[in-house]
Amino acid sequence: MGADRGTEAPSPLPAHSVRVSRRARRVLLRVVPGKGLEVVVPPGFDVREVPGILRKHGDWIARHLQPSAAVPSMGASGLPLPEVVELRAIGLQVQVAYRADPDGSLSLLSSDPRCIEVRGDLTELMRCFRLIRGWVKNQAVRHLPGLLAGLGASTGLRYKKVQIRGQKRRWGSFSARGTISLNWKLLFLPPDLVRYLLVHELCHSVHLNHSASFWELVGRHEPQFKALDARLRKARDLVPLWADYTH
Q1: In sequence order, which ranges of the chain are alpha helices (DSSP H)?
Q2: Could you give phi then psi for residue 243, rounded to 5 degrees?
Q3: Residue 67 vs residues 31, 61, 120: alpha-carbon distances, Å
Q4: How do residues 123-132 score in pLDDT, each as one tens digit?
Q5: 120 vs 128: CA distance, rounded Å
Q6: Are 117 and 66 a contacting pair, CB within 8 Å?
Q7: pTM (predicted TM-score)
Q8: Which residues are CB-contacts of 8 (< 8 A; sequence separation ≥ 6)?
Q9: Were both Cys, which of 10, 73, 218, 236 would link to 30 (CB 3.0–4.6 Å)?
């Protein structure tokens, strides 16, 4: 028989504190300036499970305990708050800063065009996501109608109204009344895909279908429409998880 090597000892846990929050609905990990790693748990949670959670997310913890790291919060589901929001459609990349204040109400500040800041109780993960999504939606309202208007003018294709929505399955649509509805998540897509989608919807102002005549018109304004259409069908992968996360 070989030598008994015994049971391998588990790796040491990082220094941390545990805080019970009545607002927390799940276990959250966060790095708080001046305090280090904090584990926020809902009332009644069995704290004996904390070591297992810390080991499971060891890589994330090691990365964010570095002095230069940002301070995002993270649910036990593994979905972190974003550190960067990249809006490819308009060539804008924005840093997201977080300022923890467990007793303060959540708010988002955007005085700097290249940075937004979320302040308040960062254990309110879903509300943090909603705040950032709201900021992106405002950017969509600000930019997408202008892009559509410019294309409408250059192509001569007309519509009556544009609205920005949050469709779950569609990037855009054209109604019989002449209203074009655009998904705010288009901002996460590259400019050429957004332009193709806008051309596609504008062409429905002439053909309210996907007939051969419709595609002929699309091709007249966008010769690469077949390749772009194939890419657009896979473009959901470009939308970050936090933009769709509602659970």
Answers
A1: 50-56, 58-64, 125-155, 191-203, 212-221, 225-233, 241-244
A2: -70, -20
A3: 10, 12, 21
A4: 888 899 999 9
A5: 9
A6: no
A7: 0.72
A8: none
A9: 73
